[in-house]
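so my prof wants the structure for this chain in the tokens format not the other one, which i didnt know existed until like an hour ago. anyway here's the sequence
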Amino acid sequence: MAKDRTNAYAGAESTARRGCSGCLVTMLLLLVAVFGLGYFGYRSISNEINGSSRAGDGGQEIVLEVPEGSSTIAIANMLKENGVIGSARIFRLYSQLTDVSSSFMYGEHTFQPGMSYEDISKELSGVLIEQIPCNTITFPEGRTCLSMAETLEEYGYGTVEEFISICNNETFDVDFFNYISNNSLKFIKLEGFLYPDTYDFPLDATLYDCIEMMLKNFEEKVWTPEIKSAVENSGYSLEEVITMASIVEKESFDGAENRVASVFWNRIERPIDDLGAAPMLQSDTTDVWIQYVLEYYYEGNAPEDMVNAYNSDYVQGIIVGPICNPGLVCIEATLNPENTNYYFFVTDEAKNFYWAETYSQHVQNCEQADLVNQQIENGTYEG
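here's what i got, hopefully its the right format
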């Protein structure tokens, strides 16, 4: 909070009038329409004002000293330069339309990541902002819904069974929800769509609230106009793309995502061979997922038809659904795969990739990878 700021405004009169955020957004929408930016310009401005475009980045609080006599322009530039806001111009316009700048005070101010313009203005004006007690929880890329459920259970938000029931049976107000299938063979319907990120879950949030926050984050970070268009042009459904991205997430690292994606697209898009064999993904990660998720949850008695639906050595084409919640990098890589003729790859314990166009080349690569692994085990590997 600001210090030593009683009646000490930063170069503005004290006749502040507070405008409402809803009115502001309406006025900005009119301005956007006038300048021809349309819906996407409006959405970008709206996200900047409410702070969602800066939320979830894992940042730390920022303390700034506003000099006495600072103009609104100087304050806006200071906020932009220090990452408190994303646009000095929009903040200046907000300040003018709401007339909040007349109450800005000089002195020390503390800003939290993802603050809305309204809360930033309150901090600059010395108005106390109520801090909602939260649990900060990070879900890394590639986490499964079951793992997320276990973590939320540890924090007291509800049981794993309640989490799964909500994911499978409840509806949510997000644009992409109707693109998620209700296939009864899917273990958790929303697997793949709970965006991995850092969240501040209020202590009194329900499991539904937590899941909704993650879905809305997916909508904000992933379901953009660019990705919508890319999905439409891919010839695959959103769920098929996210399913493929979840496999790429589990199979790749160190910038190999686009090439790994090319291997799996190449596999399922090849024609049926002379023996009538249809394309399969044949990813080891699905076997691992079945063992460590399905068999774990069902205590070794997972339904056979569900196991088969996720088995990429059994299913022709793309399996029934995602095996984890992929991050944006792998989703974009899946939609923009490298142009290769590779059908196989293997990695060693030193994280080297070996790529192959034919099975005989792949066998040789596996032998080379095994040799490296032996050298690592014996302490003779030199890189």
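also thought this was worth mentioning. Residues 134-220 form one domain.
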